[in-house]
Every structure is written in C-alpha cells, then in structure tokens.
C-alpha cells in the first residue's frame, strides 16, 4: 500500500496568515444561476484546508475568490483581518499566491526565469531588474524545493511533477502568507502525486487546496470543506466531516468508511 504523507506538527508558521471567509457568494454575469451560495469559514495560521466535492460543486470558483480572481457578490475574504479587495493588487499578490490546475508546457523560459516571476509583486515602480535580495530569494527557493539542478532547464522539458514543483516554487518566491492550489495532483501519476502532497504538507504557510481524493485530503489536511451544488455540506476536521452520510450525499453514491490500522498510523479509506 502506498503511504500518503501526513501533516507534521514541526512546520514553522511564522509567515502564515489567518484566513477569514465571511458569507462569500458568486454568480456569473452571464447567468443568473448562483454558482456559489454564501459560505463562511476561518483558518488559523499554518493550517491546511482541503476543499472537496464532485465536479461542478464550486471548488474552483471558491478558490478564485480566495486569490482575488473573482470579486465576491456578497461577503468578504480577509487575510489577517484585511479584506483582499481593500488593498492594491500588488499588495494582495504579496499576501496570497496561487498554483493553478493547468500549466502550459510551451513556456520559452527556464526554471530559474519562471521562479523569478514570483518576485514581480515586490518590485518597485516599473523596474524590471532583480536586486540582490530578489536573487537570493529565488536561489534559496530553488534549493529548498530541490530544483537547483533544473535551474537552466526549459520548463517544457520537465515532467508533470517537476513542472508542478516549479510553479509552487514561483508561488513561494512571492513570499505569500496564504497559498491556494487548485487540484495540484491533477493528471499526475502516483509517485508525483505523493511528491506534491509531501511538499504541500511541509510548506510553512496557511494553505487551501482542492482535492478529489478523499484519502489524500484525510491524510494531508487539517480541515476539509465539502461542497455540493455551490453549497457547503460541512466544514471541520476530516474525522468529523467525512461521515458516510455526508460523503454519500455529496457524491450521490453509497459510501463506507473503513479504518485501516498499520504499524505506524491509522488511515481512513472510502469505498465508493
């Protein structure tokens, strides 16, 4: 059995933020249908939230509200008590970073150049030059994510897992306090899924990530939010939220929860 890395308690949270989502909702201007009904939750610094639910549940829409791609129709998204729409876009980009689901493979840029893009929100004026401080942050980020030996490689020559790691590095170079990841394991094989999950587990940030795999969410996340048809079915720890009834309702299946006991840990699995 492949062991999914579980979250450790040794991660420093000095750079993490408190996230408060208060009654946020969103609907497309092209449609009167409410894509996301009012939702509220809060995360303490350094916690990992997994957003789960079937396709079309509103997961990506919620994440777009968190990284300021969409402005909510109602409510607010606050990081350390500050509404992200009350500050300039550049300042917001220094606070929250996003790693999206689909990454282009035809970037005519090297790994070093892509990670350097994360420093753009910190530049002053119209300067395009990197200072010594920016350079050190990029180099340290490459080293931390074990990408230094890829620094001069073209992005398109990397594997899916390697590309995902590069995009996480770019987001880390922004020095955010909140990181949002939309289906970070999508289209990856098992090995690269586990690599990305281990990386997420060890980041010293507050993290919100959408995940399809409930077992992964159980192992990696401190809290989970289940969405269905744009509405919340539950928020809290995986042990309390992932009930057979809630899972069955969300995914329209008959779910059974088994507790598997190994020599090291207990794992929750769902037979759908």
From TrEMBL:
One of its GO terms (molecular function) is ATP binding. SMART domains: AAA. The keyword Cell inner membrane does not apply. It comes from the Bacteria. The keyword Hydrolase does not apply. Keywords: ATP-binding, Nucleotide-binding, Transport. Residues 19-254 form the ABC transporter domain. InterPro entries: AAA+_ATPase, ABC_transporter-like_ATP-bd, ABC_transporter-like_CS, P-loop_NTPase. It holds the Pfam family ABC_tran. PANTHER family: ABC TRANSPORTER ATP-BINDING PROTEIN (PTHR42794:SF2), HEMIN IMPORT ATP-BINDING PROTEIN HMUV (PTHR42794). Belongs to the ABC transporter superfamily. This is Iron ABC transporter ATP-binding protein. It comes from Leucothrix arctica. The lineage of its organism: Bacteria, Pseudomonadati, Pseudomonadota, Gammaproteobacteria, Thiotrichales.
